[in-house]
Amino acid sequence: MSVLRNLENKIAGLVEGAFGRAFRSEIRPVELARRLAREMDQHRQLSLSNTYVPNEYTVWLSPADRRALGPIEDGLVDELSAYLLEHARAERLALVSHPRIELRTDQRLAIGECGIEAKLVAREGRARTAGPPELVARRAASAVQVGGDGPDAGQAFLTVSGSRTPIGPRGAVIGRSPDVDIVLSSTDVSRRHAEVVPDGGGWVLVDLGSTNGVRLNGSRVGVPTLLTDGDVIEVGPTELHFEVY
Question: What angle do CA 63, 65, 69 make, to 5 degrees?
């Protein structure tokens, strides 16, 4: 079974299992996930060393489909975003930030119809729908190579309340969701709040679009930021101590 098929099965279980009984429109959540993945694949942009894909997606739905999604929209958006991140990792595609998805209504669409707009957006928020990805990479100090093994990054650890957790070669996600790598229980923490990922020869802290933000050594993190041994990451009320050897 292919990696993509495994991912599709995963999203089918996550989304349909959680939301299937509440979702009654023509468009199923799994179908949206697959359409988003296809949109990502169709907008690949080659640079000198990476293949970049869009990181922001607007999904246009009919009024009836949007109403049907209303009670589950926040959770569904989180699951779809996680699916795109896993798809990018499996295909070794580069993202300049965690995928962001927004659902909107288009009165012209009938039930079962949808449209997707994909954008490659630099970290300071400037959209690039057709420009060379090298421009985006230069603006963003170091684009995150999602899924890179980071062989020269060294073994990293995060310590929370005395519990020391090694970070795997693909990084670690921090949040409130039970399926992330480091689970924090505070309601001030988003389901997928932040991520520590290998980037070149080091490790980078990335805010995954959290509600309350991330602080590094007391300062708010607005863009992916290189970590050094001894840094203190603040996620909600929790401090995580970063070590690397």
Answer: 115
In the sheet that holds 182-183, the strands lie side by side as 182-183, 172-175, 194-199, 202-207, 225-226
In single-letter form, the type of residue at position 124 comes to: E
| Long-range contacts at 206-211 (CB < 8 A, ≥ 24 apart) | 206/97, 206/98, 206/144, 208/98, 208/173, 208/175, 209/97, 209/98, 209/100, 210/175, 210/235
Output the pLDDT for position 33. Answer: 92
Query: Is the Cα torsion angle 220, 226, 230, 235 positive or negative in sign?
Result: positive
CA distance 52 to 55: 9
Please provide the average confidence, as pLDDT, over all residues in the chain.
Answer: 78
For residue 134, the 8-state DSSP code is H
Query: How far, in Å, CA of 119 to CA of 129, rounded?
Result: 5
Question: For residue 94, what is the DSSP state?
Answer: B
Distance between CA 99 and CA 56 in Å, rounded?
A: 6
Rounded to whole angstroms, how far apart are CA atoms 25 and 39? 21
Distance in angstroms (rounded) separating the CA atoms of residues 244 and 212: 26
Dump pLDDT digits (tens) for 78-120: 889 889 988 988 888 888 778 889 999 999 888 888 899 998 8
Q: For strand 219-220 and strand 100-105, is the pairing parallel, antiparallel, or unpaired?
A: unpaired
Mean pLDDT confidence for 220-229: 89
Query: Closest Cα partner for 202 from 148, 166, 133?
Result: 148
Q: In Å, how far from its chain's centre is CA 227? A: 19
CA pair distance 224, 143, nearest whole angstrom:
8
